[in-house]
Amino acid sequence: MNPKQLILASNIQTHLCLQRHLLVTFFKTGALLCSRDVSRGFLVYPPSLRLFAEGHAEAETRLPSGATTRHFHPSNMLSRLVLVSASSLKGSGALGAGLIQASRSLHTSSQSLAPVPPLPEKGGKVRHGIIPEELFQLLYPKTGVTGPYMLGVGLLTYILSKEIYVINHETFAAASIGAVFIYGVKKFGPSVAAFADKLNEDKVAKAQEVKDLAMTSLAQAIEDEKKEQWRAEGRSVLFDAKRNNVAMLLETNYRERLHMVTNEVKRRLDYQIALQNLHRQMEQEHMVSWVEKSVISSITPQQEKESIAKCITDLKALAKATQAKATA
Amino acid sequence: MADRPVPVVEKRLMDVKLGELGTWLGGRDFTPNGLISALRKGHDRYYNKYINVKKGGFGGIAMLLAGYVALSYLWEYDHIKHDRWRKYH
């Protein structure tokens, strides 16, 4: 184990050096891939599941930093396996987080980051869970469909007969575990997959909601802006109306004053007329009363007696006349 | 067929002819940087093909588990040798 530990240590060392001298050593496109994954450099050591899962947990906290190739993907990873495996192995992500901070500032990719290409729908095909389909495709032209199975049987026979694989108590244990494992996968696989897919869909739905909200609010803003522009166009009408108002005010004011002037002039003229009338009236009355007075004073007592006697005789005559008329 | 002659070292392993294998191996980058970058690239390819997909199947981690099982059997072989049923095969 010692050499392995040494290699581990030296690789860790080189990694820390790499982080600091990133710009110097990693300028080619291949280097871009390396600089991208410097935060996950610890993964390349013994393929134990825990370290692998550490990469998953780290990867969940990655920043989106895509490039044109499929290798760069956004941080909210949508692969089912990651969701199921990382949820139970979150603790190992602490170390990776620190590295991520360093790596964020060192990304020297000059390729555009958006839009990030979508994840592929299905992974590479694997037959019977552990053998990649490529083997079957490789052997098909020469050996047909049964070729790889024959290869498998032959290999199995060979390693059993030469006891490269030894049958001991562990074989039984492995068989039991394998049986339970396969039974579990076959039974619960689809439901777990559906669950993970639902989680994914929820994430996507949330993001879509945010996007839709942003779109509607922006569209609304555009509408409002257009409305404001339309309103701004109407300002000439507004000013015309205001101008009309002002003109009307001036007009009414002018007419008020005109009325006031005519009224005042008319009042003054009426006053003069009344004054003259009064004058004339007083003169008339005065003259009439003076004439009456002089006439009355000129009537002597002799004349008064004569006139009274005449009046009495006239009245008598009249009475007689009316009496005669009444009886006739 | 090729539009321009590609140097042997840069070809992918599948395209290297048997006779050129020695040259190919000799020209590969065995510095620590090179090794690490090769491992990382391999990891990336595996990861992006089998795990970083929307509907990943079980094969992605099953293959890794199988590899782990095989590798640990290999490391323990010296110990398991003693459980053999026959001495001569």
Automatic annotation (TrEMBL), chain A:
One of its GO terms (cellular component) is proton-transporting ATP synthase complex. Keywords: Acetylation, CF(0), Hydrogen ion transport, Ion transport, Membrane, Mitochondrion, Mitochondrion inner membrane, Transit peptide, Transport. It is found in: Mitochondrion; Mitochondrion inner membrane. SUPFAM superfamilies: ATP synthase B chain-like. One of its GO terms (molecular function) is proton-transporting ATP synthase activity, rotational mechanism. It comes from the Eukaryota. Subunit b, of the mitochondrial membrane ATP synthase complex (F(1)F(0) ATP synthase or Complex V) that produces ATP from ADP in the presence of a proton gradient across the membrane which is generated by electron transport complexes of the respiratory chain. ATP synthase complex consist of a soluble F(1) head domain - the catalytic core - and a membrane F(1) domain - the membrane proton channel. These two domains are linked by a central stalk rotating inside the F(1) region and a stationary peripheral stalk. Belongs to the eukaryotic ATPase B chain family. F-type ATPases have 2 components, CF(1) - the catalytic core - and CF(0) - the membrane proton channel. CF(1) and CF(0) have multiple subunits. Component of the ATP synthase complex composed at least of ATP5F1A/subunit alpha, ATP5F1B/subunit beta, ATP5MC1/subunit c (homooctomer), MT-ATP6/subunit a, MT-ATP8/subunit 8, ATP5ME/subunit e, ATP5MF/subunit f, ATP5MG/subunit g, ATP5MK/subunit k, ATP5MJ/subunit j, ATP5F1C/subunit gamma, ATP5F1D/subunit delta, ATP5F1E/subunit epsilon, ATP5PF/subunit F6, ATP5PB/subunit b, ATP5PD/subunit d, ATP5PO/subunit OSCP. This is ATP synthase subunit b. The lineage of its organism: Eukaryota, Metazoa, Chordata, Craniata, Vertebrata.
Automatic annotation (TrEMBL), chain B:
One of its GO terms (molecular function) is proton-transporting ATP synthase activity, rotational mechanism. It is found in: Mitochondrion membrane. The keyword Transport applies. The chain crosses the membrane at residues 56-75. Coiled coil: none annotated. GO terms for biological process: proton motive force-driven mitochondrial ATP synthesis. Its main location: mitochondrion. The keyword Membrane applies. GO terms for cellular component: mitochondrial membrane; proton-transporting ATP synthase complex. This is ATP synthase membrane subunit f. It comes from Lates calcarifer.
